[in-house]
């Protein structure tokens, strides 16, 4: 039945409608669903992919609640990116007993833009999406059972959101993240959201992850991030590692051979899920 599960998964993504796709897989049910949240912050509807673990449908576990891992897309990606590129995301959800939520981050860098009206992706995720997920699914509505991570732009976004809202996320990660935007003033449409760097340096300084390090307390967040040694973001990730060390903030930093691609990121998620799972287990003890 494995092929039927994958056919149904791809059909759900292709239609991108708010209808659950449920397939039989060795007597277990797996759900990959596209939801749509009407956002006041963005003045439009935003889609997300939700992946539920097989045990979510177990008749003997109907009262069970689950941790949530938010997976953010990179520049040029969307809410389908993780599910399409990480082909076993449904199996990973079942193995670890978690719910995955993949919001459509568009090319937002997950900021509330000081330049573009109604472009408030930070506020959308914190004040609208997270409450929607907790109200719609059997989650554990506690920051210590809520993790966020992402790739590239999404890696920056995950740490940006978690560092600024540690009351919402207790665990955070980043994969090949653009954790310092200052060296890249002409890249990835950032100046459309922040203004030109030359005339808006203070705004740029306030909207980069590495400059949030002084605001952190020692036990505020459980943090893991990694970057390939051949990645163009490698130096800024090493700089973040050094800044966290200097500030005395505990974290895991992984450096291994790799470039800025899905081969690296799908491998990274496997590593980070071990970290997230351990963090959830510690809180459950």
Would you kindly provide a written description of the structure presented here, covering whatever features stand out?
With 285 residues, the protein is of the alpha/beta class. It has nine helices and nine strands. The chain has a nine-stranded mixed sheet, sandwiched between helices. Residues 1-28 have low confidence and may be disordered.
Keywords:
9 helices, 20% strand, globular, alpha/beta, 9-stranded mixed sheet, 285 residues
Identify the overall geometry. Answer: globular
Terminal Cα span: 36 Å
Major sheet description: 9 strands, mixed
Output the number of helix runs: 9
Task: Bin the strand percentage.
Answer: 15-25%
Assembly of the depicted chains: single chain
Mean pLDDT: 90
State the low-pLDDT regions, or none. Answer: 1-28
Widest sheet: strand ordering = 1-2-3-5-4-6-7-8-9
* Radius of gyration, CA atoms, in whole angstroms: 18 Å
């Amino acid at each position: 039945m494995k092929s039927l599960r994958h056919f149904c998964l791809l059909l759900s993504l292709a239609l991108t409608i708010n209808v659950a796709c449920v397939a039989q897989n060795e007597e277990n049910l797996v759900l990959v669903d596209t939801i749509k949240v009407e956002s006041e912050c963005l003045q439009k509807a935003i889609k997300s992919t939700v992946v539920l673990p097989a045990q979510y449908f177990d008749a003997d576990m109907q009262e069970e609640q689950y941790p949530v891992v938010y997976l953010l897309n990179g520049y040029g990606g969307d809410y389908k990116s993780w599910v399409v590129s990480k082909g076993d995301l449904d199996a990973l959800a079942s193995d670890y007993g978690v719910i995955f939520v993949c919001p459509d981050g568009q090319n937002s860098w997950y900021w509330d833009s000081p330049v573009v009206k109604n472009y408030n992706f930070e506020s959308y995720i914190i004040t609208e999406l997270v409450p929607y997920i907790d109200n719609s699914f059997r989650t554990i509505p506690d920051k210590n059972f809520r993790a966020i991570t992402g790739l590239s732009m999404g890696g920056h976004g995950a740490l940006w959101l978690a560092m600024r809202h540690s009351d919402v996320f207790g665990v955070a990660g980043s994969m090949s993240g653009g954790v310092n935007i200052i060296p890249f003033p002409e890249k990835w449409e950032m100046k459309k959201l922040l203004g030109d760097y030359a005339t808006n340096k203070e705004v740029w300084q306030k909207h980069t992850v590495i400059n949030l390090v002084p605001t952190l307390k020692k036990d505020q967040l459980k943090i893991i991030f990694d970057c390939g040694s051949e990645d163009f973001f490698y130096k800024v990730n090493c700089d973040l590692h050094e800044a966290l060390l200097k500030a005395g903030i505990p974290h895991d930093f992984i450096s291994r051979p790799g470039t800025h691609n899905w081969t690296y990121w799908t491998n990274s998620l496997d590593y980070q899920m071990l970290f997230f799972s351990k963090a959830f287990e510690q809180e459950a003890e």
